[in-house]
Design a protein that fits this description.
This protein is mostly helical and 268 residues long. The protein has helices at residues 2-35, 54-57, 63-96, 102-114, 117-131, 137-161, 165-173, 178-207, 210-215, 222-229, 237-265. The longest helix has 34 residues, at 2-35.
């Protein structure tokens, strides 16, 4: 019996450690989800005092918070679309073509990822001030596009590196034009990487505070609202927004995984 238990533990200890690490990473999310059902004794209390559904029935307890959420979603959507288009084109160029300055372009792409956000924020602020551009909604969009492009390029390029070039060659051998090969073979195969890059870009844009704080002017996004509210007491509806965003991202990932499994099981 002891040997059987030892063999069972030896076969599953990696899974156990992975579950413990995953639980540790999700613990803050669980706390936020629990506090979204909390009625605190006062705005400065973070203890779970009383269960309530009022926070979910009325997530817009303050109009300022909902305005900040809508503004963050708008900025995230615009920055995601622009960064995904530019980053995807750059990823195709770096993965499929050899040109002068390619190594330098790769270094420049990785710089926004390796550079601290404090440096990025102050550099962009100095650029906008010297150019006479007033800080606001569109300066935030420009700043978010700048650092989101790098993550899009890295993600899409990793997907392109794992694609089998023989599929495109087979399409060309069957008299498909370059555009037909791209539309029917290359783009569908690269689409999971493009979608993953877009989701990553949106989450980075929606979550950013440091770069946004330097270039926002009087514009208030959701992270900036939370930072300002922390000084006078965060309303419990903030936890509702955070839980809803996490649930939406989780549902998108699960839907994509189920779709991929369904397509893999579909008979060819």
């Amino acid at each position: 019996m002891t040997a059987r238990i030892a063999r069972w533990l030896a076969d599953r200890w990696v899974t156990g450690v992975a579950l413990l690490v995953l639980g540790y990473l999700l613990l803050p999310v669980g706390v936020v989800a629990a506090l979204s059902f909390n009625r605190p004794a006062n705005r400065l209390s973070y203890d779970f005092d009383e269960f309530t559904l009022d926070n979910w029935r009325n997530p817009c307890a303050t109009s300022d918070m909902c305005d900040a959420v809508v503004r963050s979603v708008q900025i995230g959507f615009i920055a995601t679309v622009v960064a995904t288009v530019i980053g995807t084109l750059m990823a195709f160029a770096l993965a499929r073509h050899r040109f002068r300055g390619r190594a330098g372009a790769q270094v420049l792409i990785f710089l926004p990822i390796a550079t601290p956000e404090l440096v990025l924020g102050t550099s962009l602020l100095a650029l906008f001030v010297s150019a006479g551009v007033p800080q606001g909604f569109w300066t935030i969009v420009v700043a978010h596009v700048m650092f989101c492009v790098s993550f899009v390029v890295v993600t899409v390029r990793a997907r392109l590196a794992g694609m089998d070039p023989r599929l495109e060659e087979a399409a060309m051998d069957l008299y498909a034009s370059e555009w037909q090969t791209f539309r029917r073979i290359t783009l569908p195969l690269a689409m999971p990487g493009i979608v993953a890059a877009a989701l990553l870009a949106f989450s980075l844009s929606f979550d950013d505070f440091i770069v946004t704080n330097f270039n926002a002017g009087t514009t208030v996004t959701f992270p900036m609202y939370v930072w300002g509210a922390a000084q006078r007491g965060i309303p419990p509806q903030v936890n509702v927004i955070g839980t809803a965003m996490f649930a939406a991202a989780l549902l998108l990932v699960l839907a994509g995984t189920l779709r991929a499994r369904r397509e893999a099981r579909r008979p060819q």
